[in-house]
Structures are given as C-alpha cells and as structure tokens.
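To fix ideas, we quote verbatim a fold written out as tokens:
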Amino acid sequence: MLVSIFLILIVSLGGFAITYLIEREEPLMWRVFAGTLIGQSMFATLLFAFSFVFGLTIVSVLLAAAIALSPVFLLRDRERKRAFQIDKEKAIGRLQSARAAKLLPFLYYLGFFIFFVMFFDRAMMVLPDGIYTGGSNNLGDLPFHLGIIYSFADGANFPPQNPSYAGAKFSYPFIADLGAAAFVKLGAGAREAMLVQNVSWALALMVVLERFVLRLVNDRLAARLAPFLLFLSGGLGFLWFFSDYAAQSKNIFQLLSDIGKDYTISQEFRWGNSLITLFLTQRSLLMGMPLTLIVLGGLWGIFAAEITENMEQRNELSIRSFFTSPFFLGLIAGMLPLIHLHSLFVLFVVTAFFLIMRPAIRRDLIVFGIGVCVVAVPELLWSIIGSASRATEFFSFYFGWESSQSNIVWAWLKNAGVFIPLLLIGLYVYGRRSPDPEIGKVSKKKHLKKEAVAAAPDGKRRANLLLFYIPFAFLFVLANVVKLAPWEWDNIKVLIYWFVGSIPFVVYLIALLCKKSGAMRILAAAAVFALTASGALDVWRTVSRQHNYRVFDPDAMKMGERLRLATPPDSIILNAPTYNSAVVLSGRLSLMRYTGHLGSHGIDYGEREKDLKQIYRGGPQAAALMEKYGIDYVLVSPEERNTLTPNEAFFSRFPVVAEFGQYKVFDVRDRAQTF
C-alpha cells in the first residue's frame, strides 16, 4: 500500500501544477484533489504509451512517473508561484484562525475520508478461505478488473488484448486498471492498489463536485449537501423497507443489522445507488467522473464569462490561443477515451450545445476541441481499428430505458424517488427568484448572512445556469429514447451525468428551505431523508459487513499462483466462460470468459462459444480448434465439469502442469499426442 501511496503522491504534484493552467480562482484543497486525479490520469496514459515500447516494466513506470511529475516546474514561473503562495497563505490563515465552528468543514472532509476507506475496503477481501467482496453487484466485476490488472502486471499483454477474449484488441477503457497494475509491478498487492486508487478518486469526486455546485449556485450549504445526494442516491426503496419491517417481528435495529436485500437495485428498482452499482463496480467511471467535472467546471467558466472584447478579435484563432486554459482543459478531456468513453460523449454533447447557444465563445470552444483531439483522436483510432466490439451495438432506438415494460412515469418515480419533482421545483424557483433586495446593505444589517445574500441569483446568473442545464436535460431525454450501449441498463453511464447536472438545482432548493421558517426546515430535512434513505440502506448493508460473497476459493487462488510460475506470460488458456475462473488470477489470457461482459462490450462471441464447447468434448475436431485459436493450456475444474462435461479421457493424454483439489490444468501445446 505504501508503494501505491508514494507513487500517487509523486504524480499528484504534476497534476497539482497543471491546475494553475486551467483555473485561476480555485482554492488549495480543490487543487490538491483535482491534481491527484489529473496526475494519476497523466501517469497511466503515459504508461500506456511507454509500454508499447518497453512493455509494462519498471522502466515504463519510472518514465511515466517522471514525465507526469515534470509539470511541477511550472510553479517556478513568477505568476504561478505567486498564485501558489496566495493559495497557501489563505489555507494557513484558515487553519490558524480555526475555531469550533470552523472545525466543522474539517470534520466534514474527515468523515467522508473514513467513510470511503470503510466502503472501498469491502471491494476485495483476501481471507483464509478465499477472495471475497462485500458488494453483491461486484461479484462479476471484481474478477473482471483483477483479470485486467494481472494481465498487465504478470502477463505479456502489450499491445493489449482482451484478457477475456484472447486475440481481440482490448478496447474497453482500462486506464484505471493499468495504473493499478503499475503499483502491483512495484510490489503492491492488487487489493491495496485498488483501495488506494478508489479512495483517492472518491475524495477527488467529492471535493470537485462540492466546488462545482458552489460555482454554479453560489451557496455553500447547497454545495455541502451535493456529495450526500450523489453517494447516497436511491429511489423509493426505503418505503419497501418499512413495509418489510412491518411484515416481520424483528425490531428496527435487528433488521438493520441483517438487511436481506438491496433496496435500490433489484427487479423492482433499476437506478441503484451510485456507490453500490457504479463506483464500486465500474472503476473507470469512478476515475472518469471527477475528471469530467473538472472539465465541466472549466467550461462553465467559459460559458458564463463576461464578454468584453471585440467579437472579431475574440474569435480569431492565433498561436497564443493554444496557450490558454481552454486548450489545456481539452488536453485533460482528451484522456477520457481510455478512461471512460461515455464521459467523453457527455462532454461532446455539452460542448455542442454551448457552441449553438453561445456562438460568441466559439474560439474558446474550438481551442478546447483541438486540445481534446490532440490526445483523444490517437486513442480512439487505436481502440476502434481492429476492435472486436461492433459499433452498431452501441446505438439503437430503445424507449424508456429500464421502464420499457411498465409505465415510464411510475418507473422513474420509483427509481429516482422525489428527485425529479424536487428538480422541477428547483428549476422553477431558481428561474423565478429575484435578487435579495437587501444586497448592498449588508454592512448596515450585520444579521444578514453573506452566503444567503450571495445565493440570490441575479438575472444573468439565472439565465446562464438555466442554459447550462439544457444539455443535461437533453442527455436524460436521449437516454430514454435510444440505447447507448449493447446492454440497455448501461445507459446509466450517461444518465448519471444528467443526475449530477441536476443536483445543483435540487440542493439549491433544499438550502433555500433551510434558510426559511421552522416548518420549511422540517420539509428540507424530509426531502434529504427521502433522497438518501434508500441509498443509505444499501451502503450500510455493505459497510457494516453483513454479507460476504466469495469470488474465488482457496484452490482457485493456488491454481492462479501456480499458473503464473508454470506457464509463459503470453499463454492462452481454455476455461469455462465464467466470470471467476482461476485463470483470472494468473494474468494469462482466456480464450473466452463471462458472456455477460463480452455481450455488454458489443462482442459477438457466438461462434467462439460453440467452438469452446466442442474442444471440451474432445476428439480430432478439438485438436484442430485448439490449433486454430493457439490454445496452450486447458483448465478442468468444478465449473467446467458442471457446465461443459469435459472429455477428461481425451485431455488425460496431455501432461498436467498444475493440480490442486478439483482443479487440473493440461498442457496441450503438443497436439501430436491426440493421435
């Protein structure tokens, strides 16, 4: 773990320096956490490039880390050095003047840090009787990510092939796992590497989201509420929980200590809680979302800026245009294709709308787009050309997202709960609310809180923010009428950005109610409860260690270790198409793994699955097919025996390279033994 932390700190210094190229007014805390994310993104992207030349070796890791650190020299520039000194003095001043009330923000961030450590500690647990996960939805995703990490760290997987579909280019966004593989290469455990990454990204997301909301609605209470709404998101499942409570004899504490099911994701509910169904399972989104919010914050600054220059001069491209914050912001966004592709799609939609709605900022948007293309186009070309994923599977008409079999209004009410009604009210209130008439009289009336006054939107801010929200509303509509991924549920990768873009209006409304009379404050508390209760139940179920789900048994762990020692790194192994094959832990490529993952990535696996079954049946055709796919080893374990009934008499002709319990691996490289 110390190796992971040390390397993250090193590359974060470079990311910290980069923040001074994209934002001028952000505080030191934002720069620290945004810099952590930017630094890790740069490091892993550079590592991807260097690994084509040197493989994933210590040389590649050190080169990538050195270049990711190099932007720190930007702080030697007089202007940036002065800006850093000002930020540092402000931060020190806040700490030195800390009183009881000022300790609350510290406790707020500390509380989230402890919470994230407790939650992501449950992502992977190595126990004496196997490898477990504490998240019911992580049962298939954990081995998927482990397979990627080990294929980079212990296999010869450069140029990257799909570890679950040997021979095919790996076009899934894998940068998050490549970074973890670098830590493993330096001696860290996979569990510790993922834990440190997950916690650092979640903290970055929390801080960046809080600042993003503050910039939009100019209300600190609203900004502090925003992370709670994202991380404890859920629908009306808490009503079903109370129904279950009423139907049995346990008291509320007994029931909370043994919650038998999820209340945000099931046959009844499809939205899920963001931590449980997205950030724990989809590490690429956990890395990609805060990076996207950093870029969206920069785009908001461009969109809402006062335009005082002559339009002709403002929109004239010049060499100097490429040394401005929009260009560097574009370079950051350009890393998204291999981090989280749907996030790049969201930025494309937002930028297109901005260009249409506000042509006066077209120069900045063009410069931003050029910055994106510098990094994104090579990545996209590499991942698309020769990919096994079919592009046609990623876009088709599909009405209603997960509500196609029921009433869409009722489906969204169940899944989002009171969020959409509060959003509509928040949009109306924000659009109609006039500036506080007491603005300008604060010095005469000390009882008025500055934040409450600042929160009153003027006409220009109102118009800007309502226009800013239009592309997010469009994303919601789009995700309800077309399928943006082979598996329709994966539209949530876009819908979650509609949710994040809507949060500012919901928390603005709640903060406004909190500043009113006692009855309004009770209403605000009820709204927060309704928005977070279902998600809190599912998160509590995970954090409180109520359920462990075994992913690998001890024999599978031993077999994985044995395969690392007994087989070449570039070996292709045949195993049953399941998510938790022992081959995952070896770092070796599988001819084919879990069909659910392959289908969700747009891969047509039908013919290969048919051939896999034929090989396990044995005979001359099996030998020919093993030759066709270049299979080196064949695994026979309880999974293969239960689902494929392998011809063990046929495979017994080959030497056994490893055997533990009911696990056995045959070396089939010498096909002549079949005759």
The longest strand covers residues 165-169. Residues 615 and 622 are 4 Å apart (CA to CA).
